[in-house]
Design brief:
heterodimer; A: 6-stranded mixed beta sheet; 18 helices; B: alpha+beta; 3-stranded antiparallel beta sheet; two-stranded antiparallel ribbon; 3 helices; globular
Chain lengths: ~400, ~80
């Protein structure tokens, strides 16, 4: 078998993979940002986008950084991937693939925003048509492409490769004429900040959210018809799922959570409900990512198993179902779970259900019987007994302790 | 001022940032894009190959003193 020794030949093959596999165009720049070559039919437009998003400045600054692929994105939501090619006796150059959206919903979000700007049809259509021609590539696929890119350039192992991400604050900011432009940019900044909280599993996001709500006007949240608001929230949910995956949450769990919240958004009728659901969704993603980060000593299948249990806690759960979900035999899963978590699998499910029962008892007016049924405990007597063993009080006593005199205990 | 053909948009945006006042691209269709705004710059970039729209539009400066700064991108009228 022959090995392709030339970097250029390997990159040529990479270019074919990026285009034929993902519809991504390839760009070669000098280290000062001069374009050498691209196979992109929208060369002028997208080169301008690359500059406007601050990606060009960021890419140029990477020439002094260690050889690692870097992921860039602009305020429109387009994503680009780049890496420097360093060869002996040659000037550095960098290769970029992109741009692409990472979710199908991104263009629709932009279309919604443009409607408010009263643009003429030719101007709006030129922009939307261009964006509609952008491929959609998930961030996971970008990460795979980054590994292949890095391997193509340096023939190096990519097992522990870590990508660099263009920080939000490096996006080009400029003075806007009207309040809509300001809202667009400010809204985008807030959105990026929240996504960063998700990515990091950072539970300190509530103060930030409070500061958002006290700032008043926001084109993403205010004055829209319900459909537009729902669309915006659905898009944000998808972006949170993407950020959670970037933060280390398995894609399967992220996607299940995303689907569950999109269903909730579609089912709920008022904007207030939608805001509450979105806040709940944000909390859920941040908690899931945080748990994954905290439990990094626990193997991935067991973390997957825990997340699955929490996700389906209101449904009947069996060892058989969990084993099938994870791809282990029942015996092996049971042993491995106990070894890593220090608790038997069925006891863990019971603990999680009792934690949820406490939340339901303290935050809803569901009867003890209803809580018991909702969390698959069966009879009220059994639930009361288990609850008392676990928390030292009966469900009714627990509710009395939490509620005090506020409400009548059912 | 009418925009010249084949203008380097990136250089134009950089130059606009050095202007003291606002600079607009006003299309014949009634659009008014503030070339100092990022969103408008994106919209304007999408018109690079719409020579018909660019040819019928005008560059308008809020401050007269900015006109010479942009003269290399515009045709004299």
């Amino acid at each position: 078998m022959s090995v392709i020794n030339s970097v250029n030949e390997r990159l040529l093959m990479y270019m074919g993979t990026a285009y034929h596999g993902y519809g991504l165009w390839t760009w070669y720049f000098s280290q000062s940002g001069q374009l050498y070559y691209t196979n992109c039919p929208y060369e002028k437009e997208l080169k301008s986008f690359f500059y406007l998003g601050g990606c060009m400045d960021y890419a140029i600054k990477q020439q002094n950084e260690p050889a690692t692929p870097f992921l860039m994105s602009d305020s429109v939501g387009l994503v680009w991937l780049g890496e420097y090619v360093r060869e002996p006796d040659q000037q550095q150059r960098f290769i970029v693939v992109g741009p692409a959206f990472h979710a199908y919903s991104s263009v629709h979000s932009i279309e919604d925003s443009l409607r408010k700007l009263n643009l003429s049809i030719p101007v709006r259509n030129s922009y939307v048509k261009l964006l509609l021609d952008m491929p959609v590539v998930s961030l996971q696929n970008f990460q795979s492409l980054a590994r292949v890119m890095h391997h193509s350039i340096g023939f190096e192992d990519t097992q522990n490769l870590e990508l660099r991400y263009q920080p939000t604050q490096q996006l080009t900011k400029s003075t806007a004429e009207g309040s809509l432009d300001e809202d667009y940019e400010r809204g985008n900044f807030r959105q990026q900040m929240l996504l960063q909280f998700v990515r990091e599993g950072n539970r300190n996001h509530e103060e930030f959210i409070k500061s958002l709500q006290s700032r008043g006007s926001d084109m993403y949240l205010e004055g829209n018809p319900l459909r537009n608001t729902k669309n915006t929230f659905i898009i944000f949910t998808s972006q949170c799922a993407g950020a959670a995956i970037e933060g280390g949450l398995p894609a399967k769990i992220a996607k299940e959570t995303e689907r569950a919240y999109i269903r909730k958004i579609e089912q709920n009728a008022t904007p207030t409900d939608l805001i509450n659901i979105t806040n709940e969704m944000l909390d859920a993603f941040i908690d899931l990512v945080a748990e994954y980060k905290e439990n990094s000593s626990i193997s991935r299948p067991i973390r997957l198993c825990c997340a699955y249990i929490k996700k389906h806690i209101a449904e009947p759960l069996s060892l058989k179902e969990l084993a099938a979900e994870i791809g282990y035999t029942e015996y092996y899963l049971s042993r491995k779970f106990q070894k890593e978590m220090g608790v038997k699998l069925l006891d863990y499910i019971k603990q999680v259900r009792l934690d949820y029962a406490k939340i339901l008892l303290s935050t809803t007016s569901l009867t003890v019987q209803e809580v018991s049924e909702r969390l698959q405990f069966g009879t009220r007597n059994y639930f009361t007994r288990i609850f008392k063993e676990y928390s030292g009080t009966s469900p009714v006593e627990y509710r009395q302790l939490v509620w005090g005199d506020r409400k009548e205990v059912k | 001022m009418k925009l010249k053909e084949d203008v380097d948009f990136i250089l134009l945006f950089k130059t606009v940032q050095s202007c003291g006042g606002e600079v607009f691209f006003c299309s014949a269709e009634g659009d008014k894009l503030n070339l100092k705004s990022t969103l408008s710059q994106y919209l304007f970039s999408a018109l690079i190959n719409r020579k018909d729209l660019l040819a019928t539009g005008r560059i308008v400066c809020d401050e007269q003193g900015d006109i010479p700064i942009l003269s290399e991108f515009c045709e004299t009228e």
